[in-house]
Structure formats: C-alpha cells, structure tokens
Design goal:
Largest sheet: 9 strands, mixed
Number of strands: 11
CATH topology of the domain at 4-118 and 210-226: Peroxisomal Thiolase, Chain A, domain 1
Strand content: 15-25%
CATH class of the domain at 4-118 and 210-226: Alpha Beta
Helix content: 25-40%
CATH superfamily of the domain at 4-118 and 210-226: Thiolase/Chalcone synthase
Distance between the termini: 38 Å
Number of helices: 14
CATH architecture of the domain at 4-118 and 210-226: 3-Layer(aba) Sandwich
Shape: globular
Length: 407
Amino acid sequence: MNKVAIIGTGQTHTKKKRKDVILPELMRESIDRALEDADIEFKEIDAVIYGGGPELFEGVNHPEKWCTDIVRGGSKIPVIRVHTGGTVGASAGTCGFYTVASGMFDTVLVVSGNKLTESSAQEALSYVFHYTERGLNAGPPSGVAIQAKRYMHLHPHVTEDHFALLGVKARKNALKNPYATLHLPNVSVEMLKNMPYLASPIRLLDSCPVSDGSCAMVLQTKSLAKKRGNQPMSWIQAVCSIPEGAMYPDRDWGIPLGLQKSAEGLYKKTGITNPFEQIDIVELYDAFTVQELIWTDGLRLSAPGKAVELLEKGITQIDGSLPINPSGGVVSTNTIGASALIRQAEVAAQIMSKAGMHQVEKANIGLSHGWGGILQFHVLMLQSKKEDLVHDKKYAVVENPRQPSGF
C-alpha cells in the first residue's frame, strides 16, 4: 500500500446559523481553504470523497447530487459519497485514505458538512431508532444520559462536578479556536452546575450546540507529497473501525467495547504499545462532556474509571502531557456531518504546527476519533510527523498495555 499524507486542511467558521450561504457554498468555503493550505489547484485533484449525513439532517434528498458541481470545481472527476451517520466525517477521511493507499487515486479531496439549522437534528436522530427503542432513546441527550448513568454506576467516584470541569476546559479551549461555534467567556464550574437538565445527569452546557459548518482535507500519495519539499504534512499511519452490535442482550453502555476493539486494532497496526506515553494529542468526538471520560478509558489512555484523574491533574489541558480536544471539541462545535472530519483535520493541523492559538507543543503523534449510531460505531485515525512509526525504535518497546503509566 502507498503511504498517504494529509497536505492541507480547511474549515469554515462554524456558527449556529449561516444564512449567508446555501450548503454547496458552505462546503466550497472549506474546500477553497484546504486547497490554499495545500498550495495546490483544483485541477490536481483526482477525486472527491463526499461525506454526507442522513438526508433528514440536511433537509435535501441525495445532497451530494446538489453539491456535486461545486465540490468538484467544475472538473469531470469522480465523486464518491460516504454515508455512515454520526461517524460520516471520519468515515469519509478513512475512505479517502484507502483510495490513495490502494493506488486508486494519487490526490483526493475529502469534504463533509451540514446546515443543521435547516432541519431538525433532534427529530431526525429520534426517527432513526426503531419504534420499540424510541422510549429508551428519545434523541441523543437521553441516550447519553443512560450512558453517563451507567458509567457513574461502574465508577462511583465520577460525579457531575467532573462534567462541569470538562465543560470549563472545553469552553476555555474553544476561545482559542476561531472556527468554534461557542465562544463563552467567564464560564465556571458553578455556572455549568446550575444549568437546567436536558436529561439527568446531562445539563444544557454538557451538550454540544447545533452548528452550520464544513471541513475539507487534501490527501496525497507519498511519491507526490515528497515533491513538496519542506512543506509541512501529516502522515496517516493507520485507520481502524470495529463496531459492536446496537441492542444485543447485556450490552453495557458504560463500556465502549467497539472503541476498545478499534483501539486495539489501530495500535497493533502501528506498533503503539503504551498509548498514554506515546501519543501526544487526542481529538475525541465528545458530543457530551461525560464522553471524554468514557472514550479516554476506551482508548486505553487511562485505566477503567481513571480518566478523571487525568482531568483533575491537568494532564489533558493544552499545556498538559496529553492534551485532549485543544480545539474545544465537539461539545463546542457540532455540524454532525463534519464533526468527525474536523477531529482528523485538527490533528493534522497540530502535527503541521498550523493550529494557531490552540497549538500544542511537540505534537508529533495524534489520534482522532468519531462515533455514531447507538454509541456502537467508532472510527479512529493515527497521524504522525514521521513517515513511519512501526520501524521507529521508540515504538518498538513492549510494555504492559493494560497499565498505562503517568498517573
């Protein structure tokens, strides 16, 4: 397989409502920024991977047909639609990776986005469940409330105070990110704890906003990327997605089995044996504050129930030893369609030292995550500044993977 590099990324400035543009124009904004960042012209693109969420999110049937002409820049090149619900952005990035790695294309543009304010995301997310399940999961807040309650039952030391701490961290990070939807100064733990409940224990600012926005990335094969000289790029080391069943008997929503298996597969592919020590930055799909804890455990960045210790000790802050969501995360910006692609783009920007005010020092290895469905879909991507990790001596040390160090 060919080695694949991300050579450019682009995001729109997400807002609660973008009345100034229609969806194709919104997606073109991120495409133009990605092309400018990559310093290439559209004529150099071989294909477009279009990540489109459920039609109910966009209010348009087959949105890729509406957007095709503008996303392919008038060129007669293939457009491939990827549709996997909440993970669609990450799945689009994964598809782009495989089309380049396989030799199918040399340079690929990946784009995804939504105008959620033109439809009812909550209504749509309720409709996707079978009628026998809607009472259990009447939209994401109540579903994640069940997940949070179960996680708190498994780990009684986890409290709503931790959710508020996560919320404060996310809001402060978002203030440094010009692309974030929510810029909320003077946020405090007490303020977040006094917000009304959406579904106990999930409060208003424990939840993500509804955003209009788009994201794009340019992926290129090694042979072409190497001709770029000293221009920064981020190398995709591996991707992995191993889903679990949705409603099988005895499924424990507090234990993300699909994420655990996906992480194991990703680390095996890349030679990562101690992710806590070896990974420098993480971008998680935290649509709700509590999910940062659950996903951190699932990725084996902490022992089960110990993610709160990383939070309390400041390890996951921008200036900590393992920054998680320095961008402000999904809890600060959520377009659904582009949210998981933004995680990949944010990691790439960090590795290329282009993250601006929320840049992390020494960001050499980065992990991005997306989730969807009834919490059972997870898509991971590992990127690095170095072209190859598997043969790097630093990552050849065999350590006990069940006991991450550092806390």
